[in-house]
User: What shape does this take?
Amino acid sequence: MKTIDFSYFIERYNASEMDQAEIKWFEKELSGNESLRKEVLLRRKADQMLVKHDLLSLRNKLSSIEKTRKEKLIETAGKRTLAIRYAAVFTGLVLIGSLFIITGNKQSPQELYNKNFSAYEFPGPSRTAQSQTDNQYSLALGYYADNHFADAGVLFREYLKNNSENMQATLLYGICEMENKDFSEAKASFNKIIQAKFNLFTDQAQWYLALCYIANGEKAEAKLQLAAIKKSESIYRNKARKILKNL
Assistant: This one.
């Protein structure tokens, strides 16, 4: 019997390039093949790390440019101006230190949410859409990639009426609703993913559900969700641990 080389299909699946028939076939293969599931997850995490690496590289370049600019300003500034600046910085640090001692390192739920929430990054819109629903999904992915979350949310909601088994669409729809401040709708989407028998987006769903609880001020629920993430093998376990210290 000829062995299937899944490399091509894994790339298409992670890049959202499969149509509905291919998705159903591939996820059926995933459900009965643990090594294939691990390979898909491994490649997805590798893609996420590459995206983060590119962003970090850009931030480092911008930081270097800003550092050079500030150094030139300092070199041209007079001693008196420099002394005043140092005094102001020192005073500010003293005040911040005093406030930190008084209030501790606790942050408000809104501060924690703003600090930790960012929209899930996926490889890119589908390029093989054929049916009307596939075109609708591809358009929704395009809006999402361009940060037009209101338009994307509408299209994802319509698409999911007939394609409720698509867990990636469910995840992206939930994140759109977070961006649109409809946290009840977002929580429903993430709970659906978590309760599904098999999918590749459980880690993301658990993480964003915890952030929904934080945004809604549901502190007890947030702590339970974050504690579960911390104890798991989730890619978000370190972030969950840090938030728990400040919640």
